[in-house]
Amino acid sequence: MPCFISPADQLDAPDRLAIHELLGLYGHVIDDRRWFDLGLLFTEDIVFDATDFGNPVTTSLEELRIFWMSDESMHPLAHHATNIVLPRRVTARYACFPRG
Q: What average pLDDT does this structure show over 14-34?
């Protein structure tokens, strides 16, 4: 779907690379169950909305860590970030849609 993209809306190469690496690290942290490394991925005041998957909204890093540690079956062993494509348009909200 074509859209107008102003130069101010475009991500520069270092930002694109940083986001790509962050999503790759996410896959490794989740696959390896490195719950205490979630701080490498998220800020302390994260709001993580997983209601589309029947899970609650968590509103802190510690709350998310405790929730994910409570049932490791919610993250089956699989690489969680492949074929990373970043939109050309910058928005205030970013969503990651894993496919499995």
A: 85
Q: pLDDT tens digits, residue range 57-92?
A: 999 999 999 999 998 888 777 665 666 666 666 555
**Chain centroid to CA 82: how far?**
12
Note the pTM of the prediction, 2 decimals: 0.68
- Select from 29, 24, 33 the least CA-distant residue to 72: 33
pLDDT higher than threshold 60 for residue 11 = yes
Which residues face 48 on adjacent strands? 58
Comparing CA positions, the residue from 42, 96, 93 lying closest to residue 65 is 42
Q: How far is CA 46 from CA 41, 76, 92, 100, in A?
A: 10, 23, 14, 24
**58 half-sphere exposure, CB direction, 13 A CA radius:** 17
Per DSSP (E only), the strands in 1-100 are 48-49, 57-58
